């Protein structure tokens, strides 16, 4: 009996046990990333809609939003540090232990942000405490993704790896939908004054409930067969981060740049649009939040669909198609938004993430397959999270700056298209090493 993802059998489990554990691993991966992304995206929604008024009230709208997005960016800077720290322990101690630690860290940080007093009570120290909480969030999510992907990838049948690992990606739109939904509910349930005074804090505080649910699910998961095998054979790396940078630095750099055409559009479609829509297009906060939630809802179906398709026609093909689409779509997207026609605005916002998912659905398998088992947590995490500094983190700030400078949304569209062109080049430069998942 052969355990998926290993070279030799694992006699402790029957084939039925293996299937049950695989299903539980995929569920734990999806639920865990959903909770982590809920926490991380919740900050982004608040940075666009709340923090400029609560923590930077003396600034004009542009400056206040820029300052809020700057504290938001700090979380992206912290993500590679989380990848290094938890990547080390994920390759040294095990995937499961690292994943439990990231979930606890994220929950504590998010709840803490909900308690931070506003500018009217402690002045600039409120912004300082926001940054501390955001750094902890960044470190937590920086270690989460790699472990969640490997939990699914190392338990699954190699022929279905694109589909099963896409459920870790599924957590992003699910978390985004929950975050926007929580803020929208708080918006509808309170007056504008009460929402800014305390209503926005409630979604941050209820994070503790989600974390407890995630911990309950993850504690029951066995360590992945790949890591168990490595440990049994004494092949665990002593310094996996240094080893992967020495042996696979090319893959780390290319996987980071590979994400440019996916991550830059994602944060423009989900975060920058909230500021652009309210401040430039004059749309209501509730209307935009509903559309962001709806596109995330559609993305729940397109991510696993494109992950499955990558198992059939190949990760490289699907990802390349996604890159080409994203070189064209941003110009159509902003053209529809700027038309002022409600129907066109709705359609543009609803199809943004699904088109982006051509890259995002196969991405977990595509990246994790670049690294051998003993270095996989560190290598995949580093490659994935370094893009937070080069693409995702700066995206809302760069978009804000480009529109302010050139007075046209086409400048933002050109930025998104250029990011996709970078990803397309990386798709062809990355060597196909899918079989590395099946060896140590």
Please provide a written account of the structure:
- The protein is mainly α and 440 residues long.
- The protein has a single domain (15-438), classed as MFS general substrate transporter like domains (Growth Hormone, Chain: A).
- It contains 20 helices and no strands.
- It has helices at 15-49, 51-54, 61-92, 95-113, 119-122, 125-153, 161-189, 192-199, 201-205, 207-219, 225-232, 240-247, 249-258, 260-279, 285-313, 315-338, 342-368, 376-392, 395-406, 410-429.
- Helix 19 (395-406) crosses helix 20.
- It is globular.
- The chain starts with 14 loop residues before the first helix and ends in an 11-residue tail after the last helix.
- 56% of the residues are buried.
- Mean pLDDT is 88; it is low at 1-11.
Provide the descriptors you would attach to this structure in a database record.
440 residues; Growth Hormone, Chain: A; globular; disordered N terminus
CA-based shape: globular
The average pLDDT is 88
Low-confidence stretches: 1-11
The run of helices and strands is: HHHHHHHHHHHHHHHHHHHH
Largest sheet geometry: none
- From the coordinates shown, what is the CATH architecture? Up-down Bundle
CATH superfamily: MFS general substrate transporter like domains
Can you count the beta strands? 0
Structural topology:
Elements: H1 15-49, H2 51-54, H3 61-92, H4 95-113, H5 119-122, H6 125-153, H7 161-189, H8 192-199, H9 201-205, H10 207-219, H11 225-232, H12 240-247, H13 249-258, H14 260-279, H15 285-313, H16 315-338, H17 342-368, H18 376-392, H19 395-406, H20 410-429
